[in-house]
Amino acid sequence: MSSLIVAPPEHGADPAADPARLRRAFGAFATGVTVVTVGGASPRGMTANSFTSVSLDPALVLLCVGREAVMQGRLAEEGTFSVSVLGAGQEDVARHFANRSRPMGADQFDAVDWLPGRAAGAPLIAGAVAHFECVKWRTYDGGDHAIHLGRVLTLDELPDRDPLVFHRGAFRQLVPPSREGAP
């Protein structure tokens, strides 16, 4: 068994000492934008960009949720969750589910078009680039966040739509490649 040797930070350079700088550096990595949802007696949605694929066999996805977030409590209560990957032009949906003053429960979905999930029973955002319905597989400690792995139960995709992207603190859209020099 090998051991990992970690060198001490040079000259006391603790990356967590400046949270604003750390956030800016993390923001250099462009991500997709999702809305994570749970169903049940008190449905909940939350904008998240900490979502990624993990495994093809079994089909697993990962999402991170702040320990203080309302969604964290709902995920602890529910055995399933859904993820809608937002498309270009759905910035208003992302902002809605990031707004902490939105209504609680089912009323928060009145402001958006959605459809009921077949397997997880959680709302799915209409017009999203992709939908994943998942059953909770594992949860891990991730510092001030919890890391949730979900096994994919169902998926749908709209391959002709471009995703909404988040980069350097702003929503972005993909720019088609230049046709310059193309035959």
TrEMBL record:
Cited Gene3D superfamilies: Electron Transport, Fmn-binding Protein, Chain A (2.30.110.10)
GO biological process, one term: pyrimidine nucleobase catabolic process
InterPro entries: Flavin_Rdtase-like_dom, NADH-dep_flavin_reductase, Split_barrel_FMN-bd
Keywords, alphabetical: Oxidoreductase
A molecular function GO annotation: FMN binding
Domain Flavin reductase like: 26-173
Name the UniProt record assigns to this protein: Flavin reductase
